[in-house]
Amino acid sequence: MESSRGSVQAFVSLDTRQQLPRMARSWQASCQAAAVSVGGLFAVLIIAMVTHRSSPQVMAAGLAIPVLLFGAFTAYEWRIGRRLDIKLTRLHLIGVAAGLIVWLMYPAPGSLPFDPTSAQLCAYVGRPMVHACIVKADAARARSDIAWWSTGALIVVFGLFARRSRTAAWTAPAIAIAGSALAVYFLEVFLRAAAQGGFIS
Predict the structure, then answer these.
(1) Cystine design at 186: which of 135, 143, 167, 178 (Cβ 3.0–4.6 Å)?
(2) How are the residues of the chain apportioned to helix, strand and coil, as percentages rounded to the nearest 5?
(3) pLDDT for 14-59, tens place per residue?
(4) Distance of alpha carbon 93 from alpha carbon 164, whole angstroms
(5) Are 43 and 67 in contact (CB under 8 A)?
(6) Burial letters for 119-133: b for 16+ Cβ neighbours within 10 Å, e otherwise?
(7) Is the pTM of this model over 0.85?
């Protein structure tokens, strides 16, 4: 009788484990998060290359699509993790740290120094101290700074969810690349306009 009761309990326990949501099972959750992060990384790279010559609205909207998907998966994982009290190892924060490193190392267009000033931008295009150029350069730098700092803040926000969500941690490098590409894009738009004689000498 006792043996039969133990068998029933074991069967019920196994059945309960099988009914857990996919994101509550370590292997399946890891596979899904890996697929989302790697697929998202490739999506970000492709979108950045395809929209490189498009308008700012097109590029920003294109790069926002994978980031919004990252947010949806993160919210889903975090909700289930909170309901089932799932807590991941802090090793997942390595992904967040990698994203922050990528974010801090974003490239400058051309041979410009990291985070060029407006004067450096105008000197680079051969219009040093030209007022119209300085005004345009200030606007380009402001948009670039907004995109760059917003990306850093977004990585930190995702990092806060990494305790229960693998996607939140593993997609940080893709988010960093998306935001950095947009930040550099605004400076490149300025350089292209200057090359086409868009500023008054």
Answers:
(1) 143
(2) 75, 0, 25
(3) 334 445 455 455 767 778 888 898 999 999 999 999 998 888 889 9
(4) 11
(5) no
(6) eebbbbbebeebeeb
(7) no
Distance CA 15, CA 100 (A): 41
Long-range contacts of 20-23 (CB under 8 A, 24+ apart): 20/84, 21/80, 21/84, 23/76, 23/77, 23/80, 23/81
Which residue type is seen at 99? G
DSSP letter string over 142-189? HHHHHHHHHHHHHHHHHHHTTTT-HHHHHTHHHHHHHHHHHHHHHHHH
Classify residue 12 as exposed, middle or buried by CB count within 10 Å of its CB (0-12, 13-18, 19+): exposed
Both tokens of 36, joined, read 């989302």
How far is residue 103's CA from residue 184's CA, in Å, rounded to a whole number?
12
Local structure of 106: helix, strand or coil = coil
